User: Fold this.
Amino acid sequence: MNIRKFTLISISSLLLLLLLFIFSYQRYYSNKLDTQLESQSTYSRMVKTEGKDIKIYKDGKWSAIKIKGVELNSFEPGYARFESITPKKDILNWLNQIGEMHANVIKVPYIQSPSFYSAIYEYNMDRDEPLYVMHEILLDEKAVLKNYDAFDKDILKHVKKDIKKTINVINGQALIFSNKRSHRGLYLKDISKYNLGYIVGTNTNPEIVTLTNAQYPNKTNYDGDYFSVEDGNAFEVFVGEVLDFSAKYEIEKYKKSSLFSFLSSVETDPLEYKQESNLTKYASNDIGKVNPKDGDNLFISYKYHPSSSDFLEYEYTDFEKEAESTTESVVSKHLDRLMATYTLPLVISDTGISSSRAKSRVDEKDGFSRGGFSEKEQGEKMIELVDKIYQSGAAGVVLSSWQDDWTRLTSFSLVEDYLDQSNSSYWHDLQSSDESFGFLKFEPGKKKDKVYVDGKFLDWKNTKKLLETDGIKLKVKSDLSNLYVLIEKKDWSLTEDLLYLGLDVTPLSGSKTWQKEAEFTNKADFIVKLQGYNESRIVVNERYNLFNYLYKYYANIIEKEDTMPDENSDQFEAIYLLNRKKFYLKDRDKVLFPIYYETGKLTYGTDNPKEDEFNSKADFNKQGDKVEVKIPWSLLNVKDPLEKKSYGDLYLDGVGSQLDFEDIGISINYKGNRENIVTEEARYTMEKFTSTDYFERRKDSYYLMKDYWNNNPETN
Assistant:
């Protein structure tokens, strides 16, 4: 053995021994200092269930806790999901703000960086009212998509490995090397005394439940050391085995016991629904079939976004009976049904309201749509939803999420399957509902350069005019969320005159005219039509209409479109978003038409949070001779503003097509009582973004939820 190899082995051995010493010392020292744990024969604990309550052991006695939770991860703009290096001081700041809003639990969706757990440890140190932790554990998505068999060796191997890693992280005894499924590093902070429990399988889909049950009809029982299953189905046996492994590992290695659960949802719960599809009908996973042998370490965790499943709304509502619309809400009826089904504590561990500009799903009955709310409306709807959850008798709720997460995909969208996600953490798509569930907003750009649509125009002082002709002045700016336009024309009226802004994004299509309504010097793909406070909108050339291509030409969802629009067509159309496809009512043998709405319609107001009239959904504002307009990039078919990529020719190359663009052509058509002005074309070149600048801002929803949790006695 050469000296170099010997030295390397010696150093590695010393490091390993040092780690073993640290882990052993820490385990002994941690257990010795834990005075808030109740001792059992083989383990100690600080949490248990009793009936439908979760109880905490504190000061020598057990008392019920009502979960007031917020999901928290370490996402910050500019970093991939498992690559963020959020400093501990930032995490501590977030924890302080979460504590100030009177939450008592944070839910961690996957293993974060070591600094994240260090921050939790430091925050909770010597606090009478700590922030307790619930930690989720994902199934390996690649293994699931490959097999759809819960008993596949790869799925079982990975989930058990991830369970061990997560429990080790919570106990401050983990060394995780580079991998693609979690953060990595050395974890030395033991936060187990604040850990309420683990929620496994948080990304379980109905396909794996259905196919596992079909493949193993004879797997009905499981008898483990801590959990058993009797007369269940195959997936329930899988759940019992996984939870038994979790409890056994935690108790045998750390002599501690937490609560355990496996996430359920509308798609996978054991309830029967009149209108559900065969896929969800056979995706039954009843956590109540899993029996804890100690009797008090299992709870029901349930994912519930009211608008996520079409069949649920029609389960409890008959829209053909007008009187039905005034009865109890769908949410309350469903929660009551869940509470009657389970004898264990029920935690709605994943729910929330999005403040995105657009909405991806619509809730016709209760109004809990997925997106389309202002920040104030987000808070109001969240309080309404949370209040119903507490009134049902549930053990608590966890709201998703603390911060907006730019990497989250919007479910139910055909478009998302074709988007390049490599740069998703660098820009905020205001049209994507799932990116805006947070209480904390990351505003793109530098604070001093932020453009607010507020009618004050102070943000434009240092911006050069892009165009000045025929009494019309034009300025343009952009960040990684929006294109901003400022137009000035002396004595023009928003209600009596017409002002059109033609935008040229792609050279592959477009028109210099909008039939007989407007004309431009450049070919326009999109037209901003400013006409009144309530009727202004953005329209798209029919050849570049993503909605029509997806749901009429590519797929016959709205109506069948057989003819490809001409690339020089002068037809422009409203911009729509699909909220629901055709829906079949089984009990009435009736097909309901799709639901979609005009997302290109512009909202008048001020989006400056310092103003009393603040409306985060505001798109444009006019004061005097000036008007400023904010246009989200995805409304202009821009797929990636960081790399300047837009959709290509949809009808020739499909939704996966993309086109590099360097600039955007702009011209204006003004129509007043006495004049018709068509300006020359100006080309706006976006600056090259080399880094993601942003600043944080708490939304109105934060302060509304803070007041609710503070002043509502049912939650304390």
Observations:
- Residues 452-692 form one domain.
- The longest helix spans residues 3-33.
- Residues 33 and 442 are 40 Å apart (CA to CA).
